[in-house]
Amino acid sequence: MIQVENLTRYYGHTVGVRSLSFEVPRGEVLGFLGPNGAGKTTTMKMLTCYIPPTSGTARICGFDIVDEPMEVRRRIGYLPEKNPLYKDMCVREYLRYVCELKGVSRNRIKSETDRTIEQCGLEPVPNRLIGSISKGFQQRVGMAQAIINDPELLILDEPTLGLDPKQIIGVRQLIKTLGQTRTIILSSHILPEVSQVCNRIIILNDGELIAIDTPENLRSRIGKSSVLRLTLRNVPGSSKAGEILAGLDGVISIRNGPVDSDKVHLSVESKPGSDPREMIIARLVEERVPILEIRSEELSLEDIFLHLVTGEES
Amino acid sequence: MMQRLAAIYRKELKSHFQSVTAYVTIGIFFIITGYFFVNIFKFYNLLSLQSARDPSIAESLNIIERVMRPLFSNISIVLLLVLPLLTMRLIAEERKQGTFELLLTYPVRDIETVGGKFLATLTTFAVMLAGTLLFPLLLSIFADPEPGPIITGYLGLFLMGCMFISIGIFFSSLTNHQLVAGISTFGVALLFLVIGWASPFVSPAASKVLLQFSLLKHFESFAKGVLDTQDITYYLFTTFFFLFMTLKSIESNRWRS
After folding, report:
1. pTM recorded for the entire structure
2. What was the ipTM of the complex prediction?
């Protein structure tokens, strides 16, 4: 679906994106992750043929973004970061206009407009001025213009930026639905969002690709071991708990956390693949130390991200 | 090709006639040109009264020479002020709001975008100009002006408008700021209008060149009722030149942005 080869873009002497190469198979939802200025938007602008690459190229549906931009543009839907819209047009009127620009044939314009209005949940506002509807609806209008004429590839630049939590859930749901039938590239710096919605993630930093993998693989790549967090009641026996647990099979190390007046916190690092939870509970019950909480902690995307971008563990 | 150009044309035309700015602009255009017409006509009246006593004045009394020609040159000055107000938002506004970026990722050629916007503004301008046809119509009630010079005069004004609009689109494509676009258009158009004034003070060769650039010089023949291919070519050439420069400016923007 998409083949990116050594895509490079300089802004004067500053690097926007350096020598980016990756492939996206049909039907995948790919997330671009990275701090501000990492090159996410630049890459998207190149893929949509808005700005040309300094060197390298990409092929979308087999068409080169440099040599055949018109063919590429026919096959993509794009939602830019700031979601630019004509505020003085009505929703339906605007979508009709986009239909005409995208070359939807005259007899299909009505049905195409209706379809996108329905699919993006714009039924309550089709005849309102775009400038007068809420930001959540405006974002939906932005999505609607992108999916007009059913493009094979959707490129969404920070689609949930500036929305309230409820609207974010709505837009995410919409992206998930759209992703069932299309290839989607989206960028975000909200990490849980990316791990929820995307099949694969590309992590960019300073214009370079640092990692490309599924969220699970990224986790296991860095998270060599898993960590258990324990909270015990502070009873006379609980001070020895660390020593007792250190002797168990599969436990690598014990770190003593803060001790409150009534609680003791411990973190237990265990070997990958092993799950010493049952043993730990059995041992502590034997020692008559009440367990308040035991929880296995997965490496969050934040940790992976910080690890890859800054090279340090959080 | 035509569907997309037509879509942009319709959208632009609609936004011209939906905005208050366009109505204010057109309204002011009618008020000022009307004011000029009334005064020029009153002066002509005065002359005709005087000619009853002084037959030498009567010889120079010609309604085309004394009313339509001054009116045409006055309208051209008003156009110089008014057309940049219509053209300045064409691309600058879209660039500022970011909608231009989106437009450039649709399967639309730059020439369709520029063509649609140019033709929509030209239509608005044509409506404005058509409104001033009222003045020769009024004249024809009281007198019997020759239609020839009036028709060519209007053709000349139309071509001049084409040129101003193309200069306007060009400057609008260069900047995100409407005001900068408007003022630059006004400045350059004014320079084209007055460049001939310097011709008496430079070498004969340079003077010839300056006159070739002069917008007024090329307008003279139209106002006299003469159609000269050289003059028509002048206006068409400058119009296409600035439209071409607009396309180049949009293209280079992709590299700079």
Report:
1. 0.84
2. 0.87
